[in-house]
Design brief:
Layout (H helix, E strand, L loop, with lengths): L4 H58 L3 E5 L4 E3 L5 E6 L4 E4 L4 E3 L2 E5 L4 E4 L4 E9 L3 E11 L3 E23 L2 E2 L5 E2 L11 E5 L2 E2 L3 H9 L6 E7 L2 E7 L2 E2 L5 E2 L2 E17 L3 E4 L15 E15 L8 E6 L6 E5 L1 E3 L2 E5 L13 E2 L9 E7 L6 E10 L8 E5 L2 H7 L7
Parallel strand pairs: 1-9
Antiparallel strand pairs: 2-7, 3-6, 3-8, 4-7, 5-6, 8-9, 10-13, 10-19, 10-21, 10-26, 11-12, 13-14, 13-15, 15-16, 17-18, 19-20, 20-25, 21-22, 21-23, 24-25, 27-28, 28-29
């Protein structure tokens, strides 16, 4: 039998549907394959860029931010990174396994090869580093310094410093003469601020600040505030209390004291101490230093360091002129600095040592010096890792001296 016209129409319609479905599947498959290709390409591109960023970070960390060399002495360097560097030619000599090119008073170095630097002129130079000679990575400071020698101390000292301005610890409530709680300074003055002036008049300590506020008779006062190294002005209305006084509702501090370690001093009497900044215990910020004094101190007790407890040294400071050692002139991220008016007796017979530059520090056995036991002694350590980019955490070491481990458990606060 021959198929009818209707049967032919249904068959043709079915073929058309089947054909369209196949076309759609092919189109979908093509689009899916294209989509997958774009995803793969995107992943490759993203991986490439992440690889570049990761490599950038590693290479950037491979070069110190600062290189120091002694005047007249050649210092060897071997960074082994795919970078070039441009260095000022004037006053600088380059030696080693490469012949650097010189163009327009600039020396171009290949940092993938070892080299040596030497200069007869004390001062600062700058070295511009580029990845593959194309992409700027960082600028490195090259400092040429005189040969120095110091006496390593490890001696406990007392530290007393005044803040440069009145340090704000926080804000609080003031009970007014109406018996209500008021917060006149909340959201205006912040923890870590320094009050420098009141109505354009300088205040140097908290007593002067309180006096100026008491004299305002309830009128709004304008505080000159140093915040994040920027001087701003803030208007605050004092609250009259039941004692017929006026208050701003801020907690303040104008001095700090504590016990630390005198690290070294040089032939001119300039010293370094602590190895970390003097920070306020409440705000956690480095103190803006007004003036300070270094005193003799005696160790009164030792809290041994344990897991979860850093331990500490407690000491006694006598704030009398005959116990003064010198001034505290700078408070930096790597310690305090100043000048001694006299050297501590415990160190006067000690030997001077030439300082070592950071790039010459090596892993392995070494000694630290400390008077934590009551007398100055050397203790054995092992240097396990080095970070040439870190200012105050550049050496990771382990205390292995049994005497020091028994006494302190390692390195504790105040050493």
């Amino acid at each position: 039998m021959r198929p009818s016209a209707n049967e032919k129409s249904e068959k043709n319609f079915g073929i058309k549907i089947y054909t369209r479905v196949c076309e759609k599947l092919k189109e979908h498959k093509y689009r899916t394959m294209n989509f997958q290709k774009w995803i793969a390409r995107g992943s490759l591109i993203a991986g490439f860029f992440w690889g570049i960023l990761f490599s950038y970070a590693i290479i950037e960390e491979s070069i110190p931010d600062t290189i120091r060399i002694e005047k007249g002495e050649a210092e060897d360097f071997d960074f082994r990174v795919p970078m070039t560097a441009e260095l000022d030619q004037e006053g600088m000599e380059v030696f080693g396994n490469q012949s650097p090119s010189v163009d327009q008073d600039k020396i171009t170095l290949n940092l993938n090869q070892s080299f040596s630097l030497k200069s007869q002129q004390q001062g600062n130079y700058f070295m511009s580093c580029k990845l593959f000679g194309l992409f700027p990575i960082k600028d490195v400071s090259v400092e040429v310094m005189d040969k120095e020698q110091v006496i390593p101390c490890g001696i406990p000292v007392g530290i007393y410093v005044k803040t440069d301005g009145v340090l704000v610890i926080g804000t609080g409530n003031v009970v007014g003469c109406d018996g209500m709680n008021h917060e006149p300074a909340v959201n205006l003055v912040k923890s870590g601020d320094y009050v420098k002036t009141v109505n354009d008049e300088i205040v140097e300590n908290k007593d002067q600040l309180m006096e100026k506020i008491s004299q305002c008779q309830g009128e709004a006062v304008v505080l000159g505030i140093l915040r994040d190294e920027e001087l701003i002005q803030i208007k605050v209305i004092p609250v009259k209390t039941e004692e017929n006084d006026y208050k701003l509702g801020i907690w303040v501090r104008d001095d700090l004291a504590g016990v630390g370690t005198l690290t070294f001093y040089d032939e001119q009497g300039y010293y370094g101490a602590l190895g970390h900044p003097v920070s306020d215990m409440d705000t956690g910020t480095r103190v803006s230093l007004g003036e300070g004094t270094l005193y003799e101190a005696e160790i009164a007790g030792i809290t041994k360091g344990e897991k979860g407890n850093p331990g500490e040294i407690s000491g006694v400071i006598t704030y009398l002129d005959q116990y003064k050692l010198g001034s505290v002139d700078e408070n930096t991220d790597v310690g305090i600095y100043g000048k001694l008016q006299r050297a501590p007796e415990e160190s006067q017979e000690n030997e001077y040592y030439p300082i070592s530059l950071k790039q010459n520090i090596q892993k392995g056995e070494a000694m630290i010096v400390s008077s934590v036991s009551g007398e100055r002694k050397e203790y054995q350590i092992t240097i396990t890792d080095l970070d040439y980019n870190s200012a105050n955490k550049g050496i990771l070491f382990q205390v292995i001296d049994p005497e020091l481990l028994d006494l302190t458990g390692g390195v504790i606060q105040g050493m």
